[in-house]
Amino acid sequence: MKYVLIGGVAGGATTAARLRRLDEKAEIVLIERGDYISYANCGLPYYIGGVIAQRDQLFAQTPERLRAFFNIDVRIRTEAIRIDRSCQEVVVRSADGNIESIHYDKLLLSTGARAIKPRLEGIDHERIVTLRNVPDTDTIKRLVTEHPIRKVTIIGAGFIGLEMAENLHRLGIEVSIVEMAPQVMAPLDFPMAALVGNHLVSKGVHLYLGEEVTGFAALSNSEGVAVALKSGMQIESDMVLLSIGVQPESSLAEAAGLDLGARRGIIVNPYLQTSDPLIYAIGDVVEYLHPLLGEPWHNFLAGPANRQGRLAADNMALGNVATYEGSIGTGIAQVFDLTVGATGVASKRLQQLNIPHRTTITHSASHASYYPGAEVVSIELIFSPTDGKLLGAQVVGAGGVDKRIDQLALLIKLGASVADLVRLEHAYAPPFSSAKDPIAIAGYVAQNLLEGRLEIIDWHTLQNEDLQKVQIVDVRSREEYLSGHIPHSISLPLTELREQYSQLDRERPIVLACAIGQRSWYAYRLLKGLGYNHVAVLSGGVKTYLAATTPCGASPKV
Cα(543)–Cα(536) distance, rounded to whole angstroms? Predict the structure, then answer.
């Protein structure tokens, strides 16, 4: 059996090694047009920032080692230029221009994705770079070490853009971020993204949200470039990083007549086969059904790509024995002192699709509050309003985010509901968690909502309410209230509520607000017990409301 694999990063190299472990006698050819295989794309920003000290640490495998360990014919600097399906051949061109046809019994496409580069005036300026591969990394590293790079503008506030912002900032570089959307990190819902945006500003990063880049121009007094914005503003930069997304590298598949989806990704079945049963495809180039939405989507993440490589190898060697259930898009990023995780479907996406759902936002301590170093962990749950089935989750905090987002991702993939959150058995010791873990607290709140013991109102709905018709009651202490509160709210601390509740109008809706929602819940039960019917708790409390309604970097209005 002869296997030919096109693309040697992540999924391709994984498939090659797995094929050899399954079939010692097979002939395996790995074709990679670049100079490197099996390198850590996700580690590139940290090498630029100096966190990863040695360039060699980025490489999980080298061509030489893959040949020696697994007897794989690795051909770097070799580009696949055509697939001839009728005679099962791949036509390749090596670096010296030599063209060769390679026969395959089964073929794998792991051609990845390429950085989007819009057609804008001045886009080819030599100081405008992308970060997608090792050569891109070498270019940026050379610029920041050999040239006086003092100011960098990043176009795009996605995961890579924000990781690069942190690492460039670590080098003492002034960083500006331009984002067309009104928030950073598109996978997040707005109130969670606001927490991240405010944190970036607190670190000295300049945010230009809701701004569109219209072009670039060379600076006359330096080697830098000016970034022109639609608003008329210009940002002078010594370097510009384009980080506005990627698109599947599917031109080879398209020319071969394989079926592509609406987003130009290769369509595969659960066995990761393309429309040609002898050709499989994995990774960034694949378009596959989202398990929760049932619609095709691209999942540009390394974890699923590596897993797909293992499954594809099993199916190629053993005859379609393993199926791929799809990815729900679980991602995580470090943004200065925050860790940001997301999984499943965001509320805003469900709104676009008119899919009924509810959301809750809770803020809890990352571990026992009496143990030193506890930080706030913010959790948004997105779930069905009927049976509580989990549809998505987002977690932002300084510690413990990774384990919580992983637990939530597993539950979502297993079809669990909010009721299952309170049944999770968490390892508890003061340095690591609380007796009531943040996930359990989020589950309790969502469960109370579903079972009718709680009514909530979100920040956006409250912002749009007629404040003459609503009583916003802040049940925090007077001191907390004076430090920052929701406009038009009144201060009535929880400790005084039992004696002074009669001043509240029973006929007007009451919205209870506190720092994070806990005291509001106590006040809610108190007022409901006293016969008040029109009562709701502000989801996520004042922390969420002020974060979502205050422009990044501005002081909250009081």
Answer: 17
> pLDDT by residue (tens digit) across 527-555?
999 999 999 999 999 999 999 998 875 44
Q: In the structure, how many helices (H) and strands (E) does the chain have? A: 17, 31
Written as six digits, the tokens of 375 are: 């930080």
Burial class (CB in 10 A: 0-12, 13-18, 19+), 285: buried
Res 516: pLDDT: 92
Q: How far is CA 407 from the centre of its chain?
A: 16
Tokens of 452: 């009718």
Q: Is the dihedral of CA 277, 280, 281, 286 positive or negative?
A: positive
Which H helix or E strand runs over 84? strand 78-84
Q: What is the pLDDT of residue 220?
A: 84
Which residue in 155, 138, 545 sits closest to 361, CA to CA? 545
Please give the C-alpha separations between residue 174 and each of 48, 142, 166, 206, in angstroms, as whole numbers.
15, 18, 10, 8
The amino acid that residue 136 corresponds to is D
Element (H, E) at 109: strand 106-109
Neighbours of 151 (CB within 10 A): 17
Query: Can you name the residues that pair with 208 across neighbouring β-strands?
Result: 178
How are strands ordered across the β-sheet holding 286-289? 266-267, 286-289, 296-297
Give pLDDT, residue 10.
79
Residue numbers in the chain where pLDDT is lower than 50: 554-558
From 340, 339, 263, select the one nearest 298 (Cα to Cα): 263
Transcribe 467-529 into DSSP letters. Answer: TTT-EEEE-S-HHHHHH---TT-EE--HHHHHHHGGGS-TTS-EEEE-SSSHHHHHHHHHHHH
Give pLDDT, residue 309: 96
Four-residue CA torsion sign, 143, 149, 155, 156: positive
CB 94 within 8 A of CB 78: yes
Query: H or E segment at 169?
Result: helix 159-170
Structure confidence at residue 557 (pLDDT): 46
Query: 349-404: per-residue pLDDT in tens?
Result: 999 999 999 999 999 999 999 999 999 999 999 999 999 999 999 999 998 999 99
Query: Tell me, what's the pLDDT at 302?
Result: 86
pLDDT at 469: 84
* Cα(450)–Cα(458) distance, integer angstroms: 15
